[in-house]
């Protein structure tokens, strides 16, 4: 076979290189050169004042010295209240967000929903995913005033975009044969969803829920800074009062909880696969 | 038991491919009919038109005296209950248990909430246990479908189709991914059950020797048209050439050789070479 093939070709080729990503060598050089020039100009316009950088270092030092030792006790009541508010906000927003997400995800799956419903649900997802949580939080704080309700709304809205999009993509990639078999039994549309599709997407649905819970807790700390309640608000107050030792305690608690959440969500996601 | 009548059935896919071209066919009650033909001949499209997983372009299909092609959604669901379908690659819901898969054959008969909470009627559960025993899967009810072997999965598929209490079985390449011995066992089981319950069946099958062994009647499709309709014995080399075409001649010839040997004695070796 090999002998026959090589005798067919007049010249025996011994070199081979993979095809370049961009075929035209001219275009390749122009793009590379253009990128290099832009980068050079961009760095040039940054105008870094090294003196100010140098001044920053000792300030950072003072800052970090202020952090130690972290003070958990003198503001413990405020920390605890903020923490509980954040956890409550996180859990409620995740549950609420997912409950709303499920119908949107079903409607946003091309293999399940008719075209108009599909576009409608997809635009809800796109709208929710366009803006970062902090921007949405600012908007909701303006609407509902300071406090955890704005935070709850923010996280619910953000969960909706995230969860619905990823779940609908999972619904779109199901094994069609399994769903077809359920349809062939004479099942109704809802039965078809619950027997033909739900079992196929359930592990990912649970995994995403735990993952989102984890994200929501981290976000709850950030959006608190713009006034949406929770531990973020407590942290912001601590900074405003120059109580760096209390701020350090709060940061440590946030790091601990985030690590714990990440670790357990990792285990749960592994288990349900 | 009503018979299946297919009248001038034509299906053209949106892509422009003509999958079925004016197919007229009648399957009397209790008959096991094999549908053979090369890939793309329209075999799968034909049986999917019968239970309207695929919507035919024109023509009519009658189960008894009911026109399946003209039904609305509710009526279609009721008529689908009377057609049990067995799939290539089994098409079990992999993450559900064996019992849930079998009981899913009753979805057309129970309400949504009953099925959601897995509260099926006692008789259905009794029938499910009985069928599992009949297909040789006693004690497997709580296993997950993806934990079973290929042959066992197809047995669950058969039980799921039978629990519908169908009038006809639509069987799409039931042995395509099974080894030769299991293929024979599965085909034997399907034909036995058809005899027991005087069910008629349309069986799409790639394997010509198997078709000859188990079907009373063979219909050959080529490019969406019926080119042969007769007893299994009538599948001469000429007929097979006509069905599978000149291009596939070597493969068909080989298959034929296997078939005649396998027909004489129950020795599956020649097929094993292929499988």
Q: Care to describe what's here?
A:
- The complex is a heterodimer of chains A (273) and B (275).
- Chain A has helices at 2-8, 25-46, 50-67, 76-107, 115-130, 133-144, 148-172, 176-184, 189-223, 231-240, 244-272.
- Chain A has 273 residues and is mainly alpha-helical.
- Chain A is flat, with a radius of gyration of 27 Å.
- The model of chain A has no long low-confidence stretch (mean pLDDT 88).
- Chain B contains eleven helices and ten strands.
- Chain B has helices at residues 43-50, 73-80, 98-103, 112-116, 122-134, 150-162, 180-196, 208-214, 237-244, 249-264, 269-274, and strands at 4-12, 18-27, 32-36, 58-63, 66-67, 83-86, 168-172, 200-204, 217-222, 225-231.
- Chain B is globular.
- In chain B, strand 9 (217-222) and strand 10 (225-231) form a beta hairpin.
- Residues 252-275 of chain B have low confidence and may be disordered.
- Chain B is of the alpha/beta class and 275 residues long.
- At the A-B interface, helix 8 and helix 9 of A face helix 2 and helix 4 of B.
What is the topology, as strand order, of the major beta sheet of chain B? 6-7-8-3-9-10
Structural class of chain A: mainly alpha
Q: What quaternary form is this?
A: heterodimer
Order of helices and strands of chain B: EEEHEEHEHHHHEHEHEEHHH
Radius of gyration of chain A: 27 Å
Secondary-structure class of chain B? alpha/beta
């Amino acid at each position: 076979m090999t002998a026959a093939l090589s005798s067919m070709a007049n010249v025996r080729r011994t070199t081979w290189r993979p095809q370049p990503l961009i075929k035209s060598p001219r275009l390749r050089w122009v793009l590379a050169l253009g990128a290099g020039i832009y980068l050079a100009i961009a760095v040039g316009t940054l105008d870094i004042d090294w003196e100010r950088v140098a001044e920053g270092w000792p300030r950072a030092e003072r800052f970090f010295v202020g952090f130690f030792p972290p003070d958990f006790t003198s503001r413990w009541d405020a920390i605890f209240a903020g923490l509980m508010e954040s956890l409550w906000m996180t859990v409620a927003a995740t549950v609420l967000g997912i409950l709303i997400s499920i119908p949107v995800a079903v409607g946003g799956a091309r293999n399940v929903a008719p075209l108009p419903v599909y576009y409608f649900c997809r635009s809800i997802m796109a709208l929710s995913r366009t803006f970062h949580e902090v921007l949405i939080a600012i908007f909701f704080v303006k609407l509902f005033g300071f406090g955890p309700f704005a935070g709850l709304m923010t996280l619910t809205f953000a969960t909706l975009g995230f969860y619905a999009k990823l779940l609908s993509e999972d619904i779109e990639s199901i094994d069609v044969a399994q769903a077809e078999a359920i349809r062939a039994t004479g099942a109704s549309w809802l039965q078809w969803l619950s027997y033909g599709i739900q079992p196929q997407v359930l592990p990912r649905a649970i995994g995403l829920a735990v993952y989102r819970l984890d994200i929501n807790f981290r976000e709850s700390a950030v959006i608190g800074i713009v006034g949406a309640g929770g531990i973020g608000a407590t942290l912001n107050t601590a900074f405003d009062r120059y109580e760096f030792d209390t701020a350090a305690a709060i940061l440590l608690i946030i790091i601990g909880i985030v690590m714990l959440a990440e670790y357990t969500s990792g285990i749960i996601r592994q288990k349900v696969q | 038991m009503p018979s299946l009548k297919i009248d001038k059935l034509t299906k053209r896919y949106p892509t422009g491919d003509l999958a079925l071209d004016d197919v007229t066919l009648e399957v009397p009650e209790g008959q096991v009919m094999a549908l053979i033909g090369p890939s793309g001949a329209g075999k799968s499209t034909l049986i999917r038109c019968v239970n309207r997983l695929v919507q035919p372009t024109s023509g009519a299909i009658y189960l008894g005296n009911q026109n399946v092609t003209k039904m609305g959604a509710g009526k279609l669901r009721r008529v689908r209950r009377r057609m049990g379908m067995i799939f290539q690659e089994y098409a079990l819901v992999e993450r559900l248990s064996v019992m849930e898969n079998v009981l899913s054959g009753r979805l057309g008969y129970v309400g949504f909430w009953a099925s959601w909470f897995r509260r099926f009627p006692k008789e259905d559960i009794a029938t499910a246990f009985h069928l599992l025993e009949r297909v040789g899967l006693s004690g497997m009810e709580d296993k997950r479908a993806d934990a079973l072997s290929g042959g066992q999965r197809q047995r669950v598929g058969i039980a799921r189709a039978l629990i519908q209490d169908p009038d006809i079985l639509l069987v799409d390449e039931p042995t395509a991914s099974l080894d030769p011995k299991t293929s024979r066992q599965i085909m034997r089981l399907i034909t036995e059950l058809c005899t027991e319950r005087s069910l008629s069946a349309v069986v799409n099958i790639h394997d010509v020797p198997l078709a000859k062994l188990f079907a009373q009647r063979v219909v050959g499709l080529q490019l969406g048209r019926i080119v042969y309709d007769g007893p299994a014995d009538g599948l001469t080399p000429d007929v097979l050439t006509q069905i599978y075409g000149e291009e596939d001649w070597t493969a068909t010839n080989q298959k034929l050789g296997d078939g005649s040997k396998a027909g004489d004695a129950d020795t599956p070796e020649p097929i094993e070479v292929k499988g």
